[in-house]
Each structure stands twice: as structure tokens, then as C-alpha cells.
Amino acid sequence: MAAQIYPSILSADFARLAEEAKAVEGADWLHVDVMDNHFVPNLTLGMPVVESLSRATDIPLDLHLMIENPDRWAPQYVEAGAGSVTFHAEAAAAPVRLAREIRAKGARASMALKPATPIEQYEDILPELDMLLIMTVEPGFGGQPFLDIMLPKIRRTRELIAKHGLELWLQVDGGVSASTIERCAEAGADVFVAGSAVYGAVDPGAAVRTLRDQAGAAIAAAPWACDH
């Protein structure tokens, strides 16, 4: 199980997005937060910026839609250049139909859960997804401290993935850094979104490699990975 690092451009310089993407060329994917100031109390970039960014980098784009009505908008972000689109369970009217539509358009389908949203009620639809995102902060703003109380939820999610024999990536987002990434990996995550831990570093590319090494070592030693 290889660890994957997704630098979040929410922590990058928005005036230099093409250069900021180039600074993390060794990253697995580039994480792009789309917020509408309705589902979350913040407003970020939209579809025209995603289209421009997709042309400016060869790193595949992982879109995290923190928006109302993702059933309408998510498929359009695939057309804008996203290789993976994450919608929130709390906002989607028909998550299975939406996941299938995203996949049909050629992208990976992912669903996110806020910290207070339990995983258990979504067990039956996990086979419809390529990735599940466990938020380890409240969505809406970067730079928040990691919520340790999410670790049991990550473990329960990994157990459900194993129970059903799924090749489902388990992503964590929020407060992921050199001091928290190993705990996330031990609990069951294999995809890590890192914002300030990457773009706040002197060398963002080196930060990506260091985080990947840390997570990879933790995964290799984790009971869940040994049993996979």
C-alpha cells in the first residue's frame, strides 16, 4: 500500500498557481478546494481557475467540492479537467448516482465526510467509490489543528474497506503534517492532503518527499496493511 501525498493549493500563492504547482512536481496529485460560501463559510476558486490549472500542470487534479448542489456541479468539474472529484455526503442528494456519473465521465469518484458524520451509514455505497475522504478538521479553512478524535473513525473506515475487500483509497485532509501523518497512516489512511506542511516549507518538493517517506514507513508497520 503506497502512501500518496496531495499538496493543497489552498495554502499556495493564488497569484502564482502555475509556479506553485511546478514546485511540487513530485506530488501524486494536486488537491484543489472549491468552496462556495454556502456549504462552508469561505469562498475560493471556481471552474475557470480549475480549467487554467489543468492546462498548466501535468499533476492530476483532485477536486474537493465543499459546495451545495454537487449533483449539478461535480460532473462539470470533470469536464474542466479534474481527474478525481470529491463531493460531500452531507450535500449530495443522490450520492450513488453522482458517483456513477463522475466515473462515467472518466474521473475517480470520491465522497467526503465532515468530522461529525459517521461512516457506518454509508457502508453499503462504498463499492461505488474510488476514494473516501475523512475530514480531520471542520471544512472551510486551511491551517486548522488536527483533530485526534478522528483517528478512531479512520480505523473504523479501514475496517469496513477490508470487510468488503475493496481497493478504496482512504484520504485524510486537515492538519496533516510531519507531526500527525504517521498517526493517520497507522490508523488506516493511505492518501494525505497537506497544505501548510508543504507550501509553508522552504522547499515544497522536499516536504512532499519527507511526508511520503514518513507515511510509507508508518503504513508498512501498520497492522491493517500487514493484513491486507
From TrEMBL:
Query: From the record, what ranges are coiled-coil?
Result: none
| Cofactor(s), names only, from the UniProt record | Co(2+); Zn(2+); a divalent metal cation; Fe(2+)
The record describes the protein's role as: Catalyzes the reversible epimerization of D-ribulose 5-phosphate to D-xylulose 5-phosphate.
Q: Which residues bind substrate?
A: S8, H64, G140, F141, G142, G143, D173, G174, G175, G195, S196
Cite the InterPro entries for this sequence.
Answer: Aldolase_TIM, Ribul_P_3_epim, Ribul_P_3_epim-like, RibuloseP-bd_barrel
**Name of this chain's protein:** Ribulose-phosphate 3-epimerase
Identify the pathway.
Answer: Carbohydrate degradation
Q: Where is the active site?
A: D33, D173
Look at the named UniProt entry and state the broad enzyme category this protein falls under. isomerase
Residues reported to bind a divalent metal cation: H31, D33, H64, D173
Q: Which UniProt keywords apply?
A: Carbohydrate metabolism, Isomerase, Metal-binding
Please share the entry's free-text remark on the cofactor. Binds 1 divalent metal cation per subunit.
Write out the similarity annotation: Belongs to the ribulose-phosphate 3-epimerase family.
User: Which reaction(s) are listed as its catalytic activity?
Assistant: D-ribulose 5-phosphate = D-xylulose 5-phosphate
Entry EC number(s): 5.1.3.1
Query: According to the entry, what is the taxonomic lineage of the organism?
Result: Bacteria, Bacillati, Actinomycetota, Actinomycetes, Kitasatosporales
The organism encoding this protein is Streptomyces amritsarensis
